[in-house]
Amino acid sequence: MTNDIEITNKNLVEYIAAIFGFNKLAQMLPGKDIKPSYLFIGFFSILDLAILQVYVHFTGGTHIFLRSPNVAIGYATVILGVFGIEYMSRSLNESISAVRVHERVEDYENSETQWIISWRTKIIIYIIGVIILYAHAIFNVGIPNQVTAVNLLFTWEFVLLPIIIEFTLTYISIHIRLPRQIKNTDMNMFFYDPRNMGGFAAVGVLLKRSYYLYTIALLMFFIYVYGRVFLSLGGYQPGLFDLIFFSTAWFIGLLSIAHSMYTMHRFMSNEKEDRIREIEEELHEALENPYDINNSTVDDPGKLEDAQRRLEQVRNTRVYPATFTMWSQIGISVFLPQLLQLTVQATL
Question: What is the CA radius of gyration of the chain?
Fold first, then answer.
């Protein structure tokens, strides 16, 4: 549709991958389905595991997989991060188009910054992150060898930090900006929606699935932290800091899904109530003596029938963009990470 909104905001990971030439490399390789961002993280994973860590192993150290096999989940999390960014960005674009803003709001002027966090904001946050990262590496950790320097001052800066920032800001765009913009735009609900969600079913699915990605990332962090305990490797023992960090991250996720769903609920509930009040006025106009059911008469049968038909459509529309099954799935994903954390913590 020509009036659909198209989100074209830049992606930090794809942007940095292009700077390093992975767009050209993807075009040179056979097949057209290889994305530059996956080539990008694949290259740095090989650089770390097959070159830097092998160098460490043969110069008196121990390969990180032999010392801490649980770090494998860290690399899986990086892949999940890139996949999550791509999926959430694409689904956000599709969901905004499915809402059909131009059909609901007259003279609507589209600006992608209304729906997503701007490119300028991403760059500012990234620069601040790089400064903090370098300061931490130089003044707190120190640079004992070349391998540490590459990991702290190169891999973190160009691979991990962009993934963390892009994933986080895309998630915030979905759970904070998107529901608020829908609410602030004051668009009409689609009461003839066959799903009875006012035309916001796609938004509800996006909120749910993006929260799933957040929960999976949280569970991967849990496995990474407690992996040494599970594998009886000794050394680092998870403590209070890990408990607080995990619980805080879980609570932030809980607040995000609660905020987005509640914002959508308030908007949909208010819209539904406004339409019911409008139809109520029409019912009063179509009836004489409307408060006396025994003596009331119908002045305009056609108007009454039409109002009752529309009232039925409005009343059947849900005030949440979710079904009972979706709520059950969200409930499980909300409580599972914290329950797992507390259970394992109690056994230590």
Answer: 26
Contact 204, 264 (CB under 8 A): yes
**Are the beta carbons of 291 and 218 closer than 8 angstroms?**
no
Strand 297-298 relative to strand 287-288, pairing: antiparallel
Backbone angles phi, psi at 236, to 5 degrees: -65, 130
121: tokens are 């904001």
Rounded Cα–Cα distance for residues 152 and 147 (Å)? 9
pLDDT tens for residues 129-159?
999 888 877 777 666 666 666 676 778 888 8
* Of residues 274, 309, 300, the one with CA closest to residue 290: 300
With beta carbons less than 8 A apart as the criterion, state whether 166 and 85 touch.
Answer: yes
pLDDT in tens, 211-247: 999 999 999 988 888 876 776 665 566 777 778 888 8
DSSP classification of residue 187 = P
> CB of 145 within 8 A of CB of 202?
no
- 8 A C-beta contact, residue 30 and residue 121: no
* Both structure tokens of 102: 């131009």
**Residue 186, by phi and psi: left (phi above 0), alpha (psi -120 to 50) or beta?**
left
With a CB cutoff of 8 Å and minimum separation 6, the contacts of 72 are: 65
Q: How far is residue 42's CA from residue 26's CA, in Å, rounded to a whole number?
A: 12
To 5 degrees, how large is the angle CA 208–CA 213–CA 219?
A: 120
DSSP letters, 63-92, are -HHHH-GGGHHHHHHHHHHHHHHHHHHHHH
Where helices occur in 173-300 by DSSP H, the ranges are 178-185, 201-230, 240-286
Distance of CA 1 to the CA centre of its chain: 25
Q: Is 232 helix (H, G, I), strand (E, B) or coil?
A: coil
